[in-house]
Amino acid sequence: MSALTPNQFSRRTYVLFTIMVAAALFIAGRLGYWQLMRHEDLDKLSEVLRQRTITEYAKRGDILTADGILLATDIFSYEVAAHPTLIKNPKEQAQLLAPILNLPEAELVAQLSSGKETVMLTLNASTRAGEELTALRNAGKIGAIDFVAKPNRRYPGGSLAAHIIGFTSQSRIGAYGLEQYYDEILRGRDGKIRAESDALGDEILPFDLPQGSWATDGSTLVLTLNSALQNIAERELANGLQEFGAQTGQIIILEPSTGKILALASYPAPDLNAFATTDLSRFNDPAVSLPYEPGSVFKVVTLSAGLDSGKLTPNIILNDPGSVVIGGRRFYNSDRKGYGDVSLTTAMEKSLNVIAAKIALATGPKTFYQYLHDFGFGSLTNVDLAGEIPGTVKNPGDGIWYESDLGTNSFGQGIATTPLQMANALAAVANGGNLMRPYIVDRIIHPDGSVEPRSPRVIRRVLKPETSKIVTDILAHSIGVESTNKANLPGYKIAGKTGTAQIPIPGGYDPKWTIASFGGFFPADNPQYVILVKIDRPTKSPWGSQVASPIFAAVAKEISQLTGLPPDDIRTTAQQ
Amino acid sequence: MKKHLAQWRENWNQEFRAFKKNLRVRWDNMPTFGMMRVALLALGMFILVAMIYLAQASNAALIARDLRVKQLKIQQVERENAQLRYEIAALASPSAIEQRARKLGLGPAKHVVYADMPWIQPPPNELMPAFLPQGNQVTAPQTFENDPNTFEQLLALLGLENFSDRASAQTK
Asked: Is residue A453 part of a domain?
């Protein structure tokens, strides 16, 4: 091998240098390509690999009673899953997890050693379990365990006011009652944030705040409902049903001056925390979504229409021969007796169908049905509860109305109302003739702290104030005349009316069963509470006076004790 | 081989000497010290700005991390709070309280006696239902504290006029 001449050396050096420069330029070019031209694509790819979208669940708004009792709230429970293929020491992990998740250790060992990619350990671990799992993971004691917090709707009162509240499904959609009616307001808006994650997809603490939209919690509903009154209504309803051998019934308590629903009890009431295993039909609130023929309680409406239209005077004496024919159909009193000349008070006290039919006849169909519509029958009350129906009222000229319907409707048969409509009509009489819109949400508290109050709303004036007073007096006298009247509450003047309604079945009326009801208000001189008691198919007695009246009295008594409402004479003396 | 190596070394030395000489010439031709100073100053400024930027960026990152830690802590405390609120509400629900009260032998009053005591003006809030806002207002309620005769009058109302005397006699 001959020695390299300086020229040869120099040439080779330059060749080598050129190659190296070319290589460097190539690398720089590629770097430029990736860093400058493909920068965005690579950035996105990198984000996909190391970041993930985390759903920030919005807390659904609470539902509270007027006295601050929590009826519905969100708590967080954890879904816990394991990745057995990544777990090296299943026995040790099972020992740690078993007491936290409240699962048998053997079962956990089997699941963690199953060799499956992912196994779900529990869907419903408590908040405390979640905290303990976080502590264990931060301490590096458990690995390949995924746990995600999800809000879970819970109802602390169980079945308290169940029909009013409704429930929220697993997919976080409100169903029935307030949960459905106010779903949009209660729901809030889930947030989506981008956060750094580890190989298992768990969030790791980043060196920057997560980006994205944060969750907005739902608004809180404060109801007009009073938890103590609701409890009284539910308890007395359950006791009454048991005593009179009935299966279903409702009690509604309204504040007549505002239309506030103070209590609304329907029995049987489902346990809201067990909605998944409960027949959904049990969540329908019969107070607003199940029509019934009200029977003689409706005579209050007939009497009011007759007096307000001027077709009757308060002191009028009407003759009851025992039957009356309207539209070719003969109507009798329930006991098939005739009472001769009777006052309006006696007609209400004895609940005479013949007199009711005569009043309707005297009022005239056009005026009579106008009053029915003014009282809100046949149309929605627009109460803020889901599933309300308008009921059915036949009208002259609509093709299905016959003249005999005037007689039938006068004592509350052949007409379909909801219990709330009936209670609201009674409230209009108690409220000086003003029909109020019943409502159950008193105010909405938004997440920013602003309060949206709901105020009472007068739908229309149905009766003149003097008519309202006359009707109240007649009803109060009809109850007070008979000292053994089971609706009586010693010390308080009650105005009200019993009802014993037949139940329509295909082809006529059920020969065996009735709906026993009592609708009234007290104190009669300054009505504070309207109470409607409705008991379906009582077995011990079919009569409203025997079944619903004592329940009314029991509820009224407890209300007076609870609220400290003094007896009439003490109250009027103190006010003078 | 040794000859070749010696030759290569000689060549390399020559090359290196030539390179050094060349470099010195270039160095001599470099800009004056004034320009060098400006360049050094620029470099110093760049390093300073870079250091400030890094300090700020790392500080911001630490604060962000701290905020996120606090956010997560708040979230955890809120969850605990929600759980506790639920548990309290379940225990405070009317049915739970009633159940507990019944276990303790309590129940709704069967009879309520209203004693007519015209010399005592009840407080305004007792004249109307507790949660109705439109209650009538009554002024200047008189209480047991400001009327020493009230207890005697109450005893008289219940037919126990000499109760106080008998009580004091028994004490003696």
From this structure: yes
Last residue of a domain, one of A143, A167, A185: A143
ipTM: 0.78
Who wins on pLDDT, B94 or A372?
A372
Counted domains in chain A: 2
Show the tokens assigned to A231.
């409890």
Is B31 within a domain?
Answer: yes
pLDDT band at B172 (very low <50, low <70, confident <90, very high): very low
Same domain (yes/no): A413, A508: yes
pLDDT over 60 at A205, yes or no? no
On chain B, the residues whose CB falls within 8 A of the CB of A157 are 89-90, 93-95
Residue B20 Cα, gap to closest chain A Cα (Å): 16
Chain B positions touching A566 (Cβ under 8 A) are 114, 122, 126-127
Among B4, B94, B127, the residue with its CB nearest the CB of A227 is B94
Q: Residue A422: which of A497, A341, A509 has the closest Cα?
A: A497
Same domain, residue pair B37 and B89 = yes
CA distance B72 to chain A (A): 10
A351-395: pLDDT as tens digits: 999 999 999 999 999 999 999 999 999 999 999 999 999 999 999
Q: Which of A143, A170, A192 is the last residue of a domain?
A: A143
Please judge whether A208 and B112 are an interchain contact, meaning their C-beta atoms are less than 8 angstroms apart: no
Query: What residue type is assigned to position A255 of the chain?
Result: E
Which of A10, A208, A562 has the CB atom closest to B61's CB atom?
A208
Residue-wise pLDDT tens digits, A294-330: 999 999 999 999 999 999 999 999 999 999 999 999 9
Tell me the shortest Cα–Cα distance from A75 to chain B, in angstroms. Answer: 5
pLDDT in tens, A103-149: 999 999 999 998 888 899 998 888 888 888 888 888 888 888 888 88
Pick the closest to residue A257 from A103, A131, A435 (CA basis): A435
In a shared domain, residues A135 and A247: no
The answer to whether residues B76 and B145 belong to one domain is no
Strands A63-64 and A220-223: parallel
DSSP B3: H
For residue A558, give the CATH number of its domain: 3.40.710.10
- pTM exceeding the 0.90 threshold for the entire prediction: no
Do A133 and A275 lie in one domain? The reply is no
Q: Give the number of other Cβ atoms within 10 Å of residue A365's Cβ.
A: 18
Number of domains comprising chain B: 2
> How far does the CA of residue B94 sit from the closest CA of chain A (Å)?
6
Select from B15, B67, B109 the Cβ nearest to the Cβ of A209: B67
Cα(A560)–Cα(A553) distance, integer angstroms: 10
Does residue B101 lie in a domain region? Answer: no
pLDDT at B149: 62
Any domain includes B2: no
Same-domain check for residues B89 and B50: yes
ω before A210 within 30° of 0 (cis)?
no
Residues A96 and A244 in one domain: no
Kindly state whether residue B103 falls inside one of the protein's structural domains.
no
* pLDDT at residue A87, rounded to an integer: 86
Tally Cβ neighbours within 10 Å of residue B112: 12
Note whether B56 and B124 are same-domain residues. no
A452 part of a folded domain? yes
Strand boundaries in A247-301, DSSP class E: 248-255, 260-267
Which residues on chain B are in Cβ contact (under 8 Å) with A226? Answer: 131
Of A154, A205, A567, the CB nearest to B69: A205
Compute the distance between CA of residue A179 and CA of residue A172 in angstroms, rounded to an integer. 10
Q: Which residues pair with A77 in a beta bridge?
A: A150
Radius of gyration for the alpha carbons in chain B, expressed in angstroms and rounded: 50
- On the CB side of A83, CA atoms within 13 Å amount to 12
Give domain status of residue A7, yes or no: no
Give all strands (DSSP E) within A259-320, no chain letters: 260-267, 317-320
Structural domain including B23 reads 8-94
β-partners of residue A148 are A79
Segments forming the whole domain that contains residue A122: 84-143
